[in-house]
Amino acid sequence: MSSEQNKLVIKHQEELVKTFFSLDDERLGMKHFRYTVDDYFNADSSIRPTGSASPVNVDGIYGQWVMAENSDPDKRILYLHGGGYAIGTIRGYLSLTSQIAEKTGCSILLIDYSLAPELKFPHGVNDSKKAFLWMLNNGPNGSGKCTKSYISGDSAGGGLSLGVTLALKDDNSELPNAVIPLSPWAELDPVSETYDTNADIDPYISKDAIAAFRDLYIKDESDLINPYASPVYGNYEGFPPLLIQVGGREVLLDDSKKVAESAESSGCDVKLEVWDDMVHVFHGYAPFLPEANEALDAIADFISDK
Q: Are 243 and 180 in contact (CB under 8 A)?
């Protein structure tokens, strides 16, 4: 049985969905969504940024270095925020990334990658690739080679963490030591069984919402099976160690299972963790949600020897 705090998180997500659809003027829609999503993790006053965050020019991309007191400037995580490739901001992710920094002892590079519909696929992938290659030789203290590098992200950012690593692998670029997608959206088309089986227990994501954001992101149907956009179609041979965490309530649950199955069949070191009764990107409710704290501890354990 999940914690009492999880009941409040579920209620928070239900209320946030109501807020999303409280304005029906199409002229305000995307702006309203982008403001509202910054409240995604605000289920309790204890959920707030800790440590420090400082702006940085990531080869022309706006970013922030998020640090905890124990952050090693030479151990770096590129973090790619969620939001369906169309919404989500750095500000809304300072709390989650500061928790990750504290748990892992890493420095987190959080970037403002290009969003649809203004800039469609593959702009976000290209930005993320540029940011990772920059991060290899630049840290919070200035230029300098990192000793360990990782890529993580959630939801669309989780799919992006997979897609950009596949792109780096195909280009024979240096790869991260590990990849950690959280609740990844890894198949643009909402065709998996859990869109139906979990429809009544996922308080936030729906098949219709996924279809709408899919249409904002892609230029044509051929993008639907491009592995950089839909990583379920990727070749995971030679892929870095992979930890996937997903909530048991999620309509996106099958996306994680499909990626894990494909990666394992290709010989990738992959670990899939399905967290019972958890919602989409439950990690961001740390430190309020006990299960979120446990999941972040598991991430720290996973990368400790990678």
A: yes
- In which band, very low, low, confident or very high, does the pLDDT at 165 lie, cut at 50, 70 and 90? very high
pLDDT tens digits, 222-261: 999 999 999 999 999 999 999 999 999 999 999 999 999 9
According to CATH, the topology of domain 4-303 is: Rossmann fold (3.40.50)
For 267, counting Cβ atoms within 10 Å of its Cβ (0-12 exposed, 13-18 middle, 19+ buried), the class is exposed
User: Whose CA is closest to 191, among 254, 248, 260?
Assistant: 254
pTM: 0.98
Domain spans of the chain, in order of start:
4-303
270 C-beta neighbours (distance < 10 Å), count: 21
Cα→Cα distances 264→5, 27, 46, 92, 240, Å = 34, 45, 38, 33, 12
Q: Cα–Cα distance between 40 and 1 in angstroms, integer?
A: 23
Distance CA 243, CA 272 (A): 6
